[in-house]
Records
---
Amino acid sequence: METARRYDIDWLRIIAIALLLIYHIAIIFQPWAMFVGFVRSERPLEGLWTPMTMLNVWRIPILFFVSGMGLYFAMRKRNWKQLIGERTRRILIPFVFGFVAISPLHMYLFQAINEVPLGYYPHAGHLWFLGNIFCYVLLFLPVFYALKNRGEGRFKKVWGRLLAHPGGPLLVSVFFMLEAALVKPQIFSLYAETWHGFFLGALAFFFGYLFMYGGPTFWQTVKKWKWGYLLLALGLYALRYIEFNREAPGYLMALESNCWIYAIFGLVHHYLNRPSRVLVYLTQAAYPVYIIHMFVMFFGAWWLLPLAMHPMAQFVCLTVFTFIVCYLLYELLIRRVGVLRPLFGLPWKSKRQKGEKLLIKEPTLAKETN
């Protein structure tokens, strides 16, 4: 199995989570925000949604791909029992804690802002993603260990030859197109707690693992053909925007989604596959920030939305507020209070210097912080 550290994959997850925060903040300024459980500004910025429609077809699938890649690294030195125990600590415990303690907090703010009766409402909320990931681990683990134990078998060689061709990744997209055609989601980008989101996530997780399993071939291909995939993605987006009012048939959106993802893989692999002290820090921070960002965002909206400000200024201020407060909560509380660390997917003890040395030597995705 591949042992070289992959800084680009760490960056992929960090960038995807940062964009997810911005995407969620943009939802607050859409007239339909309440229908998806978000607080809503009375002064919408509907024009803000145009760039978000470019983002929303790949923002979640890319995280599922990266999570499958993370499992590949996590399996290197663990048997199946060790891996399930480690996934339970890293994924299931934060999911359960978030279900009963974090998501109810932002639901409380939602109730308060909309002046409805206050109540305790435990639910997955934005953490549905973690529940799906844990299911995929249990579902695919026998297959992945079977592949690992086969070593350099025939399947791996055939798979590598397929991925060496620029059409190979596009052929993988056929599975995603079939999912969209069979499940028929009314809105492609509604992933949370839907069968469409579950099956699409399963495919992305599965192929994320296989892309790493196939060795460097996939990465060489997407790096070489990154601009081609990007042009194809832009063309499909233009078609969707002009001909279909931003919601094309599912199979076209699935193909567009994968083209964006392959282009991003190639760009990040080309430009960001190098060490950085900032990367070491952000890799640790990304998972806790993902868990707490909805509460922080709703709290900021509660304070900012009533102010007499232009809605674009509110959007910018809310974005800055969310990132800064999430950083402060992570740095001053979550990172430093030992009992909180495992609830947010971090190791029990800080191990600052030792931990940072480990991060420099080993792929961070081996720890699977989504």
---
Amino acid sequence: MLTIDFDKLSIRPGDRILDIGCGEGRHTIEACRIKDTCCVGADFIFDNLIETRKKLEFHQELNDLSCRTIDLSCMDVTRLPFKDDSFDLVICSEVLEHILDDRKAVSELIRILKPGKTLAVSIPRFWPEKICWRLSHEYSNSPMGHIRIYKKTGLIKAIESFGAIFRFSHYAHSLHAPFWWLKCLKGLERKDSTSVNLYHRLLVWDLMDHPPLTRFIDRLFNPILGKSLVLYFKKT
């Protein structure tokens, strides 16, 4: 399930790509499918990198990867171990809402990005996220959970203040917003909710099989219900 739209990125052979906060590797793997890219997947949680490596090995067995190099590293987004102007593309998807010093994190993302190149950021959209917080105290107080809710204009101004120009945005994952509202309402840790389990099966079906019906519904409602806000910037 991709949040960043790779069709909107002008990636060229030889480009260096950083997926910071890569989780289990969804965007890292997609970057590795592009010919001759040099990819880095990084996360603060080591277990996520183990899962990313397993998935990369699976895709490699399928001859599904075309990148020149791939490195996986455990690192802190507020202290990135790279020189200035190191990357042609930096992806930071669903990360900033977890970071205490988010301004320091943004400054690092801009610092390591080459001038004229793209920073792609995604965060939970304001109003679907606000409903989750209202429905569940546990949602905003879980370990490593979300510690703030962003407004679009505020985050754009914050990122631009570090030397980037906002280019465009879109929304993603409209099917997921009602699922999280339902999960918050029923209890985040509950495993016995029939409605939550059925909805989860629907999302897994959509993820694995990409049925035209659910893909159409997701695209149709993204402008209204999209759970994620995706922003694209160019470094000045």
---
Amino acid sequence: MKRERRSADRILLILDLDETLIYATETRLERDPDFTVYDYHVYRRPWLDEFLAGCDRQFDLAVWSSASDLYVKAVVAHIFPDPSRLHFVWGRSRATLRRMSQGEDGHMFDPWDHTHYLTPLSKVRRAGWPLERVLIVDDTPEKCIRNYGNAIYPRPYEGDEADDELKLLAVYLEQIKDIPNVRSIEKRRWKELAARLAQPV
């Protein structure tokens, strides 16, 4: 489930899954799930199919999630029309576990009880992609703390049928797909730019 060669002229776009492209929950929502994986009811984020189709035309695509490897592969098989087009599909085994001893408010706590996963892009660089040409889309900033210059943070998706985050994100990505160095541009206010561009003239 990977392509051996990268495109020399394309940015690598790495996509998270949970709360970014889908919402998976053990407690069913008031509507039927789009599909199930193990004990989870899974709901596609609105505009998902259009978003993935557009990204596939303009970027090299990959998936990296901190969920279990088997779960990641199962979800990918459901939402990507042709998973073989992805350059890699990585799960928790490729993430890095980080222990925290201090909260954002300065409060100290036992690091063995406070952990989260990182998706360090140094592993992607070692696989052959220059970081100037890598973007990662993830709803969890903590996972990208070592590579914030490459990250775009969408609002977490929790099943809202009126959500239009991927529609706006597609507009934004269209604007930056030819940028030589993605780390050089400000991305924290991406949604404001996308909303302006999406307004009818």
